[in-house]
Amino acid sequence: MRKIRAYPDPVLARRTAAVRRIDEALEKLVVEMFETMYAARGVGLAAPQVGESIRLCVMNPTGKPEGEVILINPVILESSGELNEEEGCLSVPGVRSNVPRAARVRVRAYDRSGREMDLEAEGLEARVVQHELDHLNGRLFFERLNEAARMTLNRQLRVLEEEFHTESSS
Hints:
This protein is of the alpha+beta class.
């Protein structure tokens, strides 16, 4: 398992680099990411959340073994509709807010075998895909909120910032 990086860790604010090679090290990272995600009771996890600045995310919105999805170098090709539902993040513990997202997305990515794949997702699966791709672009869910909604989270975010700086200096 890996340690989940918490806001405001700088790795979470960086745009990630493309995965250039699918090898044993990447496969090991995928396995560790799934273990970490499940242990934290999450439905998705992006590589920056475990300190790796590469374009890789794993997800399982269903919680069933056949629901596991690995996206390497994902790109959203199409999106439509809009949902405004509550979201949280393993890297922003204890903070939740309604976040506007597309209701449906079509994503092109590579699977763990290096094969190109298209994923069409809607509802929760579409939300998770968009949330994880935001991580790959150095963006956190609360950055999508309007100013008024963000202001309601300021106190919680300041607490996380203080905790991070206290841990970093010890």
